[in-house]
Amino acid sequence: MEEEECLSHSSPSTDNSLELRLQRVTAENIKTVRILVSSIFPVSYSDKFYQECMNNELTGVVIRNGEAIAIVAVKPENFETGRVLYIRSFGVHPRHREAGLGSFLMDFVDEKGKLLKLPHAMLHVQTSNKTAIEFYKNRGFNVDCLVPQYYQRCSPPDAFIMRKPFH
Ligand SMILES: CC(C)(COP(=O)(O)OP(=O)(O)OC[C@H]1O[C@@H](n2cnc3c(N)ncnc32)[C@H](O)[C@@H]1OP(=O)(O)O)[C@@H](O)C(=O)NCCC(=O)NCCS
Questions:
Q1: What is the number of the ligand 1 atom nearest to the C-alpha of 139?
Q2: Domain 6-165 - what CATH class?
Q3: Per residue in 44-72, pLDDT tens?
Q4: SS3 for 101-147, per residue?
Q5: What's the domain of life for this entry (predicted)?
Q6: What is the dihedral of CA 59, 65, 70, 76, to 10 degrees?
């Protein structure tokens, strides 16, 4: 298999033996990326989402031993409150959590936000997802508002919008 293109973002891992590296989603790794996404999130992502993620510098995946173990995907979006860097997907495989990978993904969000000169990052999170809400709060996000019935096929269906300023 060809080595996937490496994105600029990399840092030493909390596991001393491994360096963390974000790669692009490519035709070679899309299968393991799909497996990761379906194992992490209760919502299913469309083929369009995966197409948009491929060879896109605003999406990064961590691949270890041929297996995708973390994903981050962001996109500039216009909302009523203005233009933001929207976090479309953000997750770590359950076996690899609490080892600094989520923080590493957040560095990528910050890097892209600054590069694109966007004032805020924004995301939707299921109201029951206490771990993620706490994780985001610890990294400068605040709950902005509640969006009832945001998710069509999840229980609970409600989401919080969380935002954080880049400056
Ligand atoms: C939210 C999520 C991305 C966090 O990922 P993660 O890899 O566990 O994140 P980190 O390891 O960087 O940090 C999580 C906690 O682990 C702990 N931790 C981090 N590195 C550690 C280490 N080396 N040793 C021990 N504990 C560590 C920290 O206590 C940290 O908590 P903090 O917020 O107090 O700093 C992950 O739980 C996840 O994928 N959840 C499911 C998907 C999801 O809900 N995504 C959000 C949708 S909106």
A1: 33
A2: alpha beta
A3: 899 999 999 999 999 999 999 999 999 99
A4: HHHHHHHHHHHHHHHCCCCEEEEEEECCCHHHHHHHHCCCCEEEEEE
A5: Eukaryota
A6: 0
